[in-house]
Specification:
The protein has about 260 residues and is an alpha/beta fold. It folds into 2 domains: about 15-105 and about 235-255, 3-Layer(aba) Sandwich (Udp-n-acetylmuramoylalanyl-d-glutamate--2,6- Diaminopimelate Ligase, Chain: A, domain 1), CATH 3.40.1390.30; about 115-235, NIF3 (NGG1p interacting factor 3)-like (Udp-n-acetylmuramoylalanyl-d-glutamate--2,6- Diaminopimelate Ligase, Chain: A, domain 1), CATH 3.40.1390.30. The chain contains 10 helices and 13 strands. Helix 7 (about 195-200) links the parallel strand 10 (about 180-185) and strand 11. Helix 5 (about 120-125) packs across helix 10. Zinc ion binds near residues 189, 230 and 234.
């Protein structure tokens, strides 16, 4: 533990200590998920620098190697529902990681719903939501939040705020009141949770990825929906996790921004 010591780029942490810290912080073993969360690919035992990315990809691995990182932490890993085969792109990715001795750690739902570091906590903070309550039942867990803005905001201003802070573009279904106050957020691909937002009677539902069936459902219910991008709504948690690791161990962490168009 390096608490109280001067932070230096010479600091390092063992892989096992870091994995135990992440598993405990994110309560990895308690959260049921299709993603196999935790250390997915084992690399070198001592970590001096850590890269973080939203998605596991060859581009992210190459950047990690270029930046001399020994671990890559991602929100979307490569092992979902267990290993069925190691072929095709999965083979290429695992081979590259093993050849370069890179650790790959993934945290999906645990990083969506973490009350302080999570993607949804980050989104709520970013738009200034208060009086937060868990929202968005998925896989038996509420992974997002509903809350209130301190005062009413025009839908246009809310969209601009999201675009500016997250860096992407929004798709909007402007079918509710022009001024919004009560808002529900669920990061990523949570369009199916629109029904829950309608039942709660919020003014606006924010998620990442658009879904075609949402159009008439939102129109008929008279609710505003903002899709702020699957990728962009899942950056806040990854970035917050990098900060938490840096603060805890004094090891440099780098967010590698590799946006998708989705
Ligand atoms: Zn996602």
């Amino acid at each position: 533990m390096l608490k109280g010591k001067k932070v230096s780029s010479k600091n390092s942490v063992s892989r096992d200590t870091l994995v135990a810290f992440l598993d405990s912080l994110l309560e990895t073993s308690k959260i049921k998920d299709h993603s196999c969360n935790g250390l997915q690919v084992e690399g070198t035992g001592q970590i001096k620098k850590i890269a973080l990315a939203v998605d596991a990809s060859m581009e992210a691995y190459r950047k990690a190697v270029e930046l001399d990182c020994q671990m890559l932490i991602v929100h979307h890993g490569i092992i979902w529902g267990g290993i069925k085969s190691i072929t095709g792109t999965v083979y290429s990715q695992i081979k590259y990681l093993l050849d370069n001795n890179i650790n790959l750690y993934a945290s999906h739902l645990p990083l969506d719903l973490h009350p302080q570091l999570g993607n949804n906590a980050g989104l709520a903070k970013l738009i200034g939501l208060t009086s937060l309550k868990p929202f968005g039942l998925y896989n038996g867990l509420e992974i997002g939040f509903e809350g209130k803005l301190v005062k009413h905001l025009s839908l246009n201003n809310l969209v601009h705020l999201l675009c500016e802070k997250l860096g992407g573009e929004c798709t909007v279904l402007p079918f509710g009141e022009e001024k919004v106050k009560r808002i529900a957020v669920v990061s990523g691909g949570a369009a199916e949770e629109l029904d829950q937002a309608i039942k709660k009677g919020v003014d606006c539902f924010i998620t990442g990825e658009p879904s075609h069936p949402n159009y008439h459902a939102a129109l008929e219910a008279g609710i505003n929906v903002i899709y702020a991008g699957h990728y962009h709504t899942e950056k806040p948690g990854v970035q917050a996790l990098g900060n938490a690791i840096r603060n805890r161990f004094g090891v440099p962490t780098l967010f590698t921004d590799i946006p998708t168009t989705i």
